[in-house]
Structure formats: C-alpha cells, structure tokens
Amino acid sequence: MELKTRTTDEQQLIAGCRDGKPWAQKAIYELYAPAMLSVCVRYVSDMETAKDLLQDGFIKLFTKIDSYSGMGAFAGWVRRIFVTTTLEYLRQTNALKLSSSIDDFEYFIEDTEASVLDKISADDVMVCISKLSEGYRTVFNLYAIEGYSHAEIAGMLNINEVTSRSQFMRARKILQKSIQDLLK
Amino acid sequence: MKDNNKHIEPQDPFSELIKQKLEGHQMPVDADVWKQLEDKLHKKRRKPILWWFVTGSAAMLALLLSIQPLVDEKTNQLSFEQIEKENIPDNKLSEPKDKIERKNEKPTTVEYAKVQEEQDLSIKQEKQVKTSSLNKKLENNLSEERQTEENKTDNSIVSRKTDVNTTNSEKTNSNEARKSTIVEASPDSISISKKNIKKLDELPAVDSKDYSEPKPKKKRDWLLAAAFGSGGSSSVASPNDMFLAEIGDRNLVKAATTYTRILTADDFSYKSFSAPLSFGLTVRKEITNHLDVETGLVYTYLSTSFEENGISHYDASLSLHYLGIPVNLIVPVWKDKKWEVYFSGGGMVEKGLRSIYIQNEYIGSQIITTDARTKIDGFQWSANATLGGMYNLYRNIGIYFEPKFSYYFDNDQPISARTDQPVVFGLTAGVRFKL
C-alpha cells in the first residue's frame, strides 16, 4: 500500500492558476464555490441564475488572477469579483430600479433582538432576504453584509446617497417583519 | 468592498447580527456546475475518453475499409469471369475437342449468375437440373458404350466433365456452399478415349451424390472478438446514506491509517458512480450446431466520486481496476446470411488489480490531499445473460451488440457502481472475426 498526504496552500493554488493549471483552478473552485454561490443567491435569489453567475464569476477570477497583487486577503478579492459580477447582471436586467415609495413600511418595528435571530438558521435568513425586492435586497446586501458605505453604494448603483440610505432602512424593516413572521 | 468589512457609519445591531449569521454561509454546488465551467475554460481540450473513443472508432472503420477492397477484389475477379461466360451464346459453348480437352486439364468454373448474391440459388438449381440430366445421359451412354465396346471400335461420344470447384465465398456463406459443387461445362458430347470409359465403367452406380466429393467433416469455427462495454451509472445524494449500509464495509481504503485521516463513505453526502467501462478480447468456439462456448479476458474500470459540501467541505475519487475471465454459453436463436441472433448466458470472475483513492479536504485556504493506492482483496463473481445480435459485414467480420443484464454478487469488494446497484443493465458492442 502506498499512502501519501500533502498540503497545498493558497499561494501555491494562486501560482497554479496564474500558470493556467487545471488542477489549481479546480482547487480554487472547490475552496470558494460554496461560499460564492451563497453570495450569488443572496443577490439574485433564483438558483439557476445564481449558478450561471457563479460560473461567470469564476471565469472572471481565472482570467483576471494576474491582477491580484497579493496584497490583502485573497478571499476578499474573490468575493469582490462575485459581488461585481452579480451587480453587472442586475444592471443589465434593469433590476436595480429602486422603489421610490416611502409609505410602504412606515409603521414602527422594534429592533429584533439577538435571541430572536438565534432561533433561526442562516438558511432561513437567506429565504427572508430572497423575499425582498431586488432593489432593497441589493442595497441591504451591500451595506449590511459586504460592508460598503452608503456613499460607495451610491456610486456603484448610480444613485444618490440619501436614496441608498432610505432603501436600506426600508429593506431592514421588511426583513425584520419577515423574520418575526417566521417565528410566529 | 472593504476588506476589513468596517463601515464608516456604525452598523445597527440587527444588521450586525444578520451579517454574523451569513458571513460564512455556504451552499452546496452541483457537480455539473464545475463540468460546465470546465468546458467553458478549456473549450479546446477534449476529454481523453472521448478522444480514445473517436480514435478507436476511426481505427476500426479504417480496418474494415481496408479489408473491403481485398474481399471485393476476389469477388470482382470471379464475377467478371462469370459475366464473360454468361455472355457467351449457348451455341458457342460447343468448342472444338482439343480446346475442351486442354481446358479439362484444369478445373474451370462456368455459368454462374451475374450477381454474387443471386448466384447461389440459381447455381444450385442449375446444378441440380444439369447433374440429373448429365447422370441420365451418362447412364445411357455408359450402357451403350458397354454394348458397343465389344462390337465397335469407333469412339463413343460421351461427355463427362466434373469440376469440383469450391469457391471461397461459397465456403463461408453457408454450409451448403461449403460442399463441393459439380459444374457441367457443355451439354454437347465430347469424345473420350477408351481408357477413360473403362474408368467410368469402374465407377459405382451413377447417382448425383457420387459426383460430389465426400462430405467433409463440418469445420467448427473459432471466433475472436474485441468488445467495448458500459452501463449502470448512478448518482446518490443522501445525508446519512442509511440505505447503503447493507453494502458492508464503508471504508474506502482498506488499510491502517494512523498518520492521516481517510474518510469513510458515510462522510460524504453525494456519491456519483460512473458507468463501468470494459474492454475485452474473447474467443468463441462452436461446440455443436446449437451451442458455442465463449471465454477471454475483460478489463474493467470503475470510478466513483464523493463530495461533501456541508459544514465541512471535501471530495474524493475512488478508481478500481479489474481483470476478469468470462465463461459464456451461446445458443443461436436465428440466423441468415447477414444476421445472427443468439442467447448468451454465463458468468465472470474478476480480480481487482488496483484501488486508487484520492481525497481532498478543503480547510480554510488550504487543501489537504491524501492519495492511497492499495491492492484489492478477494474476487468479484457475477452472472450475466444477454440476447445478442451480430451483423456480418464481410465473410469473416461481423459487428455485434449485446444488451446485457449482469448480477454482481456481494463479495466484499470496494464501493462502486456494482455495489450500489448489483443488477446492472449494460451494452457491449464489438467486432468479431471468424478464424
């Protein structure tokens, strides 16, 4: 019997991808695909579209890997590629027409406590996010999860900062209500 | 996006909780996503198995085409001669005595049908008619000769020309065709010497059968076959795999693993059993008119891939190589010139040559790969039955197809498509050569 164990780190994989090695591309895909599919689903909600975007994102990743400077976390660079890819798709499909109504959720909802969120799974949260309209969902994802500022979001979505802020507030309220409904 | 994920503005508690909840969230990805992506990434590359299939098919086609001219050449020569003879008017068939005698030095073939396919039947009928008329004529002549020999010295006119002609095409086309045939050259009488008449006199009573050579003992053909077969793939996605527990050993590698961690089948929620790929060389021998026996060597490749995309993320592949000896009995069901349908049943014993297990664990930004190559203990026994069909392309070459049902006994073998589904429906196709 022959038994061998070897460890391949991220730098070896990046170097392999730069050389166009299929084994390295497969390994990078295996490392990041599950998390990146979650990112895509969070933005587009439809699974088939998310899978297409996942493929597009990886093609972009492998073709642009030379542009990764090595400074900063590779995981962050990868994530940025997928967020950008989904935003491009949403722009192309005119899905980012943000709601201008301010009367939808003017009623007051108490802030959801941590204990409430502990009772639901991440998958449940994903379902609740998927129920948001594309505009609300995009702004909420970019601000609350990806960590962009409203100024940055305004620039990315070609809207003004106030609109981004108001969209986020509405999205948060809808999401809070949706989670509370889930626990009833 | 900011790599440190910090807002300029402070995050509200609700959003912060959502972020914590979803930050490391992962979703299982179907295997076909990578396959599609791989195709897009490497459009110009072709999978080795496809390449081999295309190359093999091309080689087989080239072989068959290269054989065809040889067959046609022989057939064409014969046909040309036949057509020439056909075109000779009947009255021209009476040739001068000396010319015919010269011809008689060598066996000649006369009067075949124009087309080879139509030839056999017409020749047989013609032969029968001519043989019987010849026999009668010979009988008459012989008796006349006997009477006149004592009294007369002039030559009798007797024609007898037997030409034993066994053509290659007749040999193979049918058992009848293998028999020697009597071909009569000319209905006209030809003078022969007294010496020859005496020889004729010594012949037993004239009968059509007497003009045939003694019936040869039937030759039992050997058939050599090269075949490629596959069948019985499946994919299983099951969290705990309880229904597979009956298979037996869940270890993917039968070896002590003290210094590394080798996962078991139960650690994976998704398994994909590729269809077994077999390539074999077999020989078939006719034992009786209604029974053949077949044996040979068959190589089989079995591949299974495993994947887990839950909290832990890892994948693995298990490749098994087997070499087997099949023994099958074959009973012909129906047969004509081109087609042959037969029933085949039997078994196979296989010995595992090598097990190759490769496991990848994706931990953080690292991949830990374990590669274990081990021998395979024991034997795999199986039984199979098929209703096969063969199409004869040429005299000695046929292609055959065998939709096959196989049952693989539980012989404590490593996990594969066979352990997942012991009853396998597969298709074998190949080329068979008559030796």
Structure description:
The complex is a heterodimer of chains A (about 180) and B (about 425). Chain A has about 180 residues and is mainly alpha-helical. Chain A folds into two domains: about 10-90, Rna Polymerase Sigma Factor, Chain: A, CATH 1.10.1740.10; about 115-185, Arc Repressor Mutant, subunit A (Orthogonal Bundle), CATH 1.10.10.10. In chain A, about 70% of the residues lie in helices and about 5% in strands. Chain A contains nine helices and one strand, in the order E-H-H-H-H-H-H-H-H-H. Chain A starts with a strand and ends with a helix. Chain B is an alpha+beta fold and about 425 residues long. Chain B has two domains: about 80-210, no CATH class; about 220-435, Porin (Beta Barrel). Chain B contains nine helices and 13 strands. Chain B has helices at about 15-20, 30-40, 50-85, 95-105, 115-150, 170-175, 175-180, 195-200, 415-420; strands at about 165, 180, 220-230, 235, 270-275, 275-290, 290-310, 315-335, 340-365, 365-375, 380-390, 395-410, 425-435. In chain B, the strands form two sheets. In chain B, strands 3-6-7-8-9-11-12-13 form an eight-stranded antiparallel β-barrel. In chain B, strands 1-2 form a two-stranded antiparallel sheet. The longest helix of chain B has about 40 residues, at about 50-85. The radius of gyration of chain B is 37 Å and the shape is elongated. In chain B, about 20% of the residues are buried. Mean pLDDT of chain B is about 70; it is low at about 1-5, about 70-120, about 150-195, about 205-210 and about 240-250. At the A-B interface, strand 1, helix 2, helix 3, helix 4 and helix 6 of A face helix 1, helix 2 and strand 10 of B. Strand 1 of chain A pairs antiparallel with strand 10 of chain B.
Work out the strand percent of chain A: under 5%
Number of helices of chain B: 9
DSSP strand count of chain B: 13
What is the CATH class of the largest domain in chain B? Mainly Beta
> For the largest interface in this structure, which chains are involved and how many residues does each contribute?
A-B, 59 and 56 residues
Quaternary structure = heterodimer
Name of the top-level CATH class of the largest domain in chain A: Mainly Alpha
